[in-house]
Amino acid sequence: MTRTVWFNCCAGVAGDMLLASLIDAGADRLAVMDAWGALGVDGFAATWEQVQRCGVSSIWTNIAVDDHRHEPGHDHAHLHRPAGDVIALIEAAELPRPVGQSAVAVYRALADVEAAIHGMDPDTVELHEVGALDSILDVVGVCAALHSLGIERISYSPIAVGHGTVRTAHGMLPNPVPAVSRLLADSGARTVGIDTTMELSTPTGVALLTVLGESCGPMPSMSVESTGFGAGTADPPGRPNVVQAIIGDTSSGTRPDGGRPCHLVEANVDDVTGEVLAHTIAALIAVGAHDAWATPIVMKKGRPAHTVHALCDDARFDSVRQVLIAETGTLGVRATPLGRWPQQRRDDSVEIEGHTIRVKIGDNRVKVEHDDALAAAEALGRPLRDVISLAETLGRQLMS
């Protein structure tokens, strides 16, 4: 069971829209408010209001900041902060571990982007709009909402962006603003251009998606459990200014014979070195492929070449495809729908003379983690095959 959320960003994305879409889809409002309380900041009030956006009923996150509690003449919602201060604020809060880690990861990405744009150190770079209190609440709130829903995997559609210029703390900047365009470039996320000068996608919203999300593409196959719409503040005519969240289980689909659907993704390459092939296989595994391998082939005109293969679930297909293209430079990939029948297994470990070795235990065999066995063999000065054999024997004792 893998609980997944897919965000439809056809009208753009912002932090408050993501939060509202999750609230509308059933996220625990109290969990979000508890996370805000853990930050130890005051001077704000937040409500979630039912609104219409071009005829679509949706939730709007309304965060109001009490300007009178702070310096006269300053809008506290838009005071800028050093990135290091924002990260320290989140790290000091008593948040659930996944909530704090996710929020910090988002702000580290924003700090890196702003630092690269301004040529500064990431810890000291000033965060303007994204460092404002309302943006901090959006980021922490989204992470808390995801945690309350038990979300394990995040994916999202191509992200809508406008054109022209927008007004920021730095003055008039291109639309999309530099932070958004750099986040999109760094993540490889795809976009959809909309003929409007509105700032459809904000750095906060794009950072939440590209840092926490695993893939950008069409909605994955899932058993849909709930859906929600998060409204933007503006209500332009002819286009609902909303983010749609669809939540479901991407692991529930099975074949009639009990197998699980998957894809075999492949590319033929004749100009890639062995070192690059090895790295590509490792990169494919790292983004979630069940397995990856290469086989030698002969292409036209007798050229020696290789086929690089990767086996993955539908939810990982886009990430696997992008890695295969990026790492090999192939001009195209192909995919074949398949079924797989993984056998039940569990992870455990055994001890050999003070060295912990991980093992996978199935119904009829024990598989020893090679790297652990190698490290133990080298430390103990024993043959690798002897360590593996002993670990298998100890693992079989755990089967009953």
Q: Gist?
A:
The chain is α+β, with helices and mostly antiparallel strands and 400 residues long. It has helices spanning 15-24, 29-38, 83-92, 97-118, 133-149, 178-187, 203-212, 274-286, 317-328, 370-380, 384-396, and strands at residues 3-8, 44-53, 56-65, 81-82, 126-127, 153-156, 159-161, 165-168, 171-174, 191-193, 215-216, 223-231, 242-249, 260-269, 291-298, 304-312, 334-340, 345-352, 355-362, 366-368.
Structure, explained:
The chain is an alpha+beta fold. The protein folds into three domains: 247 residues, no CATH class; 81 residues, Alpha-Beta Plaits; 52 residues, no CATH class. Helix content is 34%, strand content 30%. Strands 11-6-1-13-12 form a five-stranded mixed beta sheet. A hairpin with a 2-residue loop joins β18 and β19.
Record keyword descriptors for this entry.
400 residues, 3 domains, alpha+beta, 11 helices, 4-stranded antiparallel sheet, 34% helix, Alpha-Beta Plaits, 5-stranded mixed sheet
Number of DSSP strand runs: 20
Number of domains: 3
**Low-confidence residue ranges:** 67-78
The major β-sheet equals:
5 strands, mixed
The overall pLDDT average reads 88
Which structural class do you get from the secondary structure elements? Answer: alpha+beta
**SS field, number of helical segments:** 11
**Residues in helix, %:** 25-40%
Report the β-strand fraction as a percent range: 25-35%
Radius of gyration: 25 Å
- Looking across the biggest beta sheet, what order are the strands in? 11-6-1-13-12
Instruction: Give the CA-based shape.
Output: globular
End-to-end gap: 26 Å
